[in-house]
Write a structure and sequence with these properties.
Largest sheet: 8 strands, parallel, barrel
CATH topology: TIM Barrel
Number of helices: 13
Distance between the termini: 43 Å
Oligomer: single chain
Radius of gyration: 19 Å
CATH architecture: Alpha-Beta Barrel
Number of strands: 8
Shape: globular
Length: 297
């Protein structure tokens, strides 16, 4: 089993998720197949959260049944509503997560609310460092939505990991120099939303009426991929691997086949010419497309 730079996101095994999700939440048999295929393919890191429905519970049970709980690297998130005040809430969430996951230590405790960066205090740093000293966590991370928040997180001595969105259409964090900043500080980056919550898989005619604003860019993207003889999966993973070297890449899956397709795609190297064409075609895509919170209903 060779290692990979992919992290399996497990929101899909805990709840319905993604605009292009046609199958819904997998049953327990499918969840086992997903996790087994990931592990056999070299994926040893998993992303979950208290807020992902039954994800923590299902992940914990299946990894325990597989006999790999002590080997797996698990990242989870406390409730996103935590405002940086009473850290006992975070500790309570952490203990609940460890129990459900059948592990004694998290790889990364990942805060899912970038607003806490504005209220971060030395007391919070002391609290997370105490959790490290107790062996409850290895790393502390923050998932962010803006380049400014990424810079603040990277500059925080108590934060080891920053999770950011990036994909075929999204240049924001690249232009802000986030990769160089992380490398200069020895911090780890995780890249999420490489499929833009499934939007990139959709043909323009499949878009709901309230998302007609994305039709032109989707059509242009699919045209480039068709001419380049690339699948969306291969292009999305290969592009991020090329543009964000050394970074972990978060993927999700609703079926075993999707896991296997992602693993295969991760072995495909995209030519510099195709990468340059994509970057030229999409230099500054509207945030209305890049930010799912702006999609409306």
């Amino acid at each position: 089993m060779s290692k990979t730079n992919l992290i399996l996101g497990t929101v899909q095994i805990g709840m319905n998720y993604g605009i292009a999700n046609a199958t819904g939440k997998p049953d327990i048999k499918t969840a086992r197949e997903i996790l087994q295929a990931a592990w056999d393919g070299g994926i040893q890191e998993f992303d979950t959260a208290i807020g992902y429905g039954e994800s923590e519970k299902i992940l914990g049970v299946i990894l325990h049944e597989m006999g790999v709980s002590s080997l797996a690297q698990i990242n989870t998130k406390p409730h996103g509503s935590w405002n940086g005040q009473d850290f006992s809430e975070v500790k309570k969430d952490l203990e609940a997560s460890l129990k459900k996951l059948h592990v004694e230590q998290l790889n990364t405790l990942l805060f899912h609310n970038e607003a806490i960066l504005e209220s971060w205090t030395p007391k919070i740093s002391d609290a997370v460092n105490a959790l490290r000293d107790e062996g409850k966590i290895r790393n502390v991370g923050v998932s962010v939505y803006s380049a400014d928040a990424a810079m603040r997180a990277l500059s925080n001595p108590a934060i080891d990991v920053v999770q950011i969105p990036a994909n075929l259409l999204d240049r924001r964090f690249e232009k802000a120099g986030i990769l160089h900043k992380a490398q200069s500080l020895g911090k780890a980056l995780q890249i999420r939303s490489i499929f833009l919550q499934g939007l990139l898989f959709m043909a323009p005619h499949q878009l709901p009426a309230h998302m007609a604003f994305a039709k032109r860019d989707l059509a242009d993207l699919h045209h480039i991929l068709c001419e380049s003889n690339l699948t969306l999966t291969a292009a999305a993973i290969g592009f991020v691997q090329a543009e964000w070297p050394g970074c972990k890449i978060l993927i999700g899956a609703e079926t075993q086949k999707q896991v296997l397709d992602n693993l295969d795609a991760a072995t495909i190297q995209i030519s510099p010419e195709i990468i340059a064409r994509i970057k030229k075609q999409f230099p500054d895509v509207s945030e209305q497309i890049l930010n799912p919170s702006l999609w409306g209903k």
